[in-house]
UniProtKB/TrEMBL annotation:
Its EC number is 2.7.1.11. Belongs to the phosphofructokinase type A (PFKA) family. PPi-dependent PFK group II subfamily. Atypical ATP-dependent clade 'X' sub-subfamily. One of its GO terms (cellular component) is cytoplasm. It comes from Pseudodesulfovibrio indicus. The gene is pfkA. It is an enzyme of class 2 (transferase). This is ATP-dependent 6-phosphofructokinase. Catalyzes the phosphorylation of D-fructose 6-phosphate, the first committing step of glycolysis. Uses inorganic phosphate (PPi) as phosphoryl donor instead of ATP like common ATP-dependent phosphofructokinases (ATP-PFKs), which renders the reaction reversible, and can thus function both in glycolysis and gluconeogenesis. Consistently, PPi-PFK can replace the enzymes of both the forward (ATP-PFK) and reverse (fructose-bisphosphatase (FBPase)) reactions. Pathway: Carbohydrate degradation; glycolysis; D-glyceraldehyde 3-phosphate and glycerone phosphate from D-glucose: step 3/4. ATP binds at residues 90, 156-157, 181-184. The lineage of its organism: Bacteria, Pseudomonadati, Thermodesulfobacteriota, Desulfovibrionia, Desulfovibrionales. Keywords: ATP-binding, Cytoplasm, Glycolysis, Kinase, Magnesium, Metal-binding, Nucleotide-binding, Transferase. Its cofactor is Mg(2+). One of its GO terms (biological process) is fructose 6-phosphate metabolic process. The keyword Nucleotide-binding applies.
Amino acid sequence: MKSCNDDGGTPKSTAIPTVGTAKISNPIKFGRFVDDEEDAVLVNISRKKVEGNAKTKKKPTHIYFEPAGPREKIYYDPSKTKCAVVTCGGLCPGLNDVIRAIVMAAHHEYRVPSVLGIQYGLAGFVPEQGYDVIELTPDFVSRIHEFGGTVLGSSRGPQDPEVIVDALERMNVSILFMIGGDGTMRAASKVVEEIEKRGLSISVVGLPKTIDNDINYVSPSFGFDTSVETAAMAIRGAHVEATGAPWGVGLVKVMGRDAGFIAAQSALSCQEVNFCLVPEDPFDIDGENGLLAALDARMKRRGNAVIVVAEGAGQDMLEESGKKDASGNVKLSDIAALLKREIVAHFKAQNIDISLKYIDPSYIIRSVPANANDRIYCSFLGIHAVHAGMSGRTGLVISRWNGRYVHIPMDLVTKGKKRINTCSNYWRAVLESTGQPVSMKNT
Ligand code: ATP
Ligand code: MG
């Protein structure tokens, strides 16, 4: 059996920077303050990592993430604190919930008088763009969680960190909350650097957004649960279509540029998927081990099939689009169009007219409101971001790790991207549920 390291590695440092010493008593009256030492969360919880390796006598490495939560002493004086919130990158279920949670916690827990909403991502900091800031009051945000998208709007495209920090200084912002994906966290790191260079006391707190579940040490972030639920609905539809016609094939394309977690997780949740194609597991279409051979066998055995493909799967078989979006992300070529063409042609060559129904729920997945689990998650993320910011911490993201909310240094989450480990038991479970061959590569 191929051996795999599934633990995601152990970071060398998990220390979180601060803008200064916290000296002000926290005004929160209810609950319990977090103890940095005692409440720290182990990064790795396997026995080998906790107790050391019995066979090799290797000593354990105890690395902890800082716990999230309210501190007894805070850095910013609440009555003189101004916060700002910005949402960047693509849409994801739960963005409004996070904005709402930040505003409610800042106003009600700390009595912060002002939370500003920056419109349309980083572009909102640039005066020439002409976007007004929005005063985010509890009244303004009270019902926004009922809707998908982000009330602040979002955008892609780089902006100069100097211009962003100029804007923060002009507006007298003490804490900036940046909600976005890996690109946003990279931008946030540059903003932190610029703030340090100028010797300012402005905290930057990141809230990781990744519908694809591809950010390191974010397991998984908000919106993923909702997106799997929505993808599963499309798959169920594809299954009904496939079983409702002779030679029925249901083909569903879901999000997943570089990581196929939505495809894998929704396949697991449905159990009706026969082929799950993800970017991490290259496959051939033709040849004796390719997809068409396996699909042919399945169709002749059972008369129908459901295929779920992540948008980034099989890109090596397509001509590169050569196009990039405003943030420099390569625009993917359409794998579903290729599959449709090849599958129909394959059966046509045998005089079989298949009934192929293609469903692409991609933008529906992004734009629906968050489900119950994600709402709860978003609410905790927002509240913990406010606690972290008020304590004077900066350059961190809020995440859930080993079931606890933690602070993670920004540079850790931007170092690499999370992918499905195709020799893990997780991927084996996907293969078991679909019944597809372990590999559909010819060599
Ligand atoms: P998604 O998961 O939807 O792609 P994202 O946060 O990665 O979310 P991007 O559009 O890549 O979305 O980035 C968001 C913002 O951060 C954009 O304005 C982008 O230009 C900026 N950004 C991305 N990478 C960097 C970087 N290395 N340095 C500075 N800014 C960056
Ligand atoms: Mg990105």
